[in-house]
């Protein structure tokens, strides 16, 4: 009976992952998991965590709802990992309260804009092998980026070779609009599709007319050898 009472009295959010260190910082819980050789985000992070450091590990992916239970989280450090994929709902549940999100020095080439645009947090995205495209441009325009690191968001790959190696902000300041490029590509694809359908209709009409003409000619050829009604009357 005393055992069950102990289970009920101990708050579920007070446990600490075995690979991390939990401390109090200015009255708020800080969970420190830096340089712990982690390959994924720990499942048992305390619910009352306010500061979470997962930097300098080997995490490769941020799955959907990875931090959903951490409603008090304000600062999240995921820098210096091997993150390549971020799901659309990766930060669902923490968007409202998160103030700082550090994703710098990873292996991120692209990111769903839905994953970041709902956040009010200040973002650090520097030193990733970014592929410069419309989604990244929209993030740069609409998200709250750390002004000290925005110049380090560099095009590792891009639609045109001349943009490679340049800061994305510099490319955009030069008048490049990756979203309009995508729109033009879409317009061309729609034009080609419409032209293809139009060509199919024209071919069908031509074949239909030719087929009817051939049937008419056969009918005329069939009627020619038949004796006329006048011949029978004579």
Automatic annotation (TrEMBL):
<dbReference type="InterPro" id="IPR050541">
    <property type="entry name" value="LRR_TM_domain-containing"/>
</dbReference>
<feature type="signal peptide">
    <location>
        <begin position="1"/>
        <end position="22"/>
    </location>
</feature>
<protein>
    <recommendedName>
        <fullName>Leucine-rich repeat-containing protein 3</fullName>
    </recommendedName>
</protein>
<dbReference type="Pfam" id="PF00560">
    <property type="entry name" value="LRR_1"/>
</dbReference>
<dbReference type="Pfam" id="PF13855">
    <property type="entry name" value="LRR_8"/>
</dbReference>
<keyword id="KW-0732">Signal</keyword>
<keyword id="KW-0433">Leucine-rich repeat</keyword>
<dbReference type="Pfam" id="PF01462">
    <property type="entry name" value="LRRNT"/>
</dbReference>
<dbReference type="InterPro" id="IPR000372">
    <property type="entry name" value="LRRNT"/>
</dbReference>
<feature type="domain" description="LRRNT">
    <location>
        <begin position="15"/>
        <end position="51"/>
    </location>
</feature>
<dbReference type="GO" id="GO:0005886">
    <property type="term" value="C:plasma membrane"/>
</dbReference>
<comment type="similarity">
    <text>Belongs to the LRRC3 family.</text>
</comment>
<dbReference type="InterPro" id="IPR032675">
    <property type="entry name" value="LRR_dom_sf"/>
</dbReference>
<dbReference type="InterPro" id="IPR003591">
    <property type="entry name" value="Leu-rich_rpt_typical-subtyp"/>
</dbReference>
<keyword id="KW-0812">Transmembrane</keyword>
<keyword id="KW-1133">Transmembrane helix</keyword>
<keyword id="KW-0472">Membrane</keyword>
<feature type="transmembrane region" description="Helical">
    <location>
        <begin position="188"/>
        <end position="209"/>
    </location>
</feature>
<keyword id="KW-0677">Repeat</keyword>
<dbReference type="InterPro" id="IPR001611">
    <property type="entry name" value="Leu-rich_rpt"/>
</dbReference>
